[in-house]
Design goal:
The chain is an all-alpha fold. It contains five helices and no strands. The protein has one domain. The chain is about 65% helix and about 0% strand.
């Protein structure tokens, strides 16, 4: 999930002069995630969030069958 609070916290650390590795360590997030949010501005973050708001659900078409088989067990 893409959280605005996480983005804002990364940006706060960035303004305070923290490196990407320091941010990822302090926040206990993956360095790639920290780096991604580090370089984004507010407009880019909102666009990114809109694009990734809904994911394709690979098993969605099988959901009923899976749930039925679990109930039968």
């Amino acid at each position: 999930m893409i959280k605005e609070k996480m983005y804002e916290k990364v940006q706060l650390f960035k303004r305070q002069g923290y490196s990407i590795l320091e941010i990822s360590s302090d926040m206990e997030i993956d360095p790639k995630t920290a780096a991604k949010y580090y370089v984004m501005n507010g407009r880019e973050f909102k666009a990114y969030r809109r694009e990734h708001m809904f994911r394709d659900k690979v098993f969605e078409e099988y959901e009923k069958d899976i749930l039925e088989s679990l109930r039968d067990e």
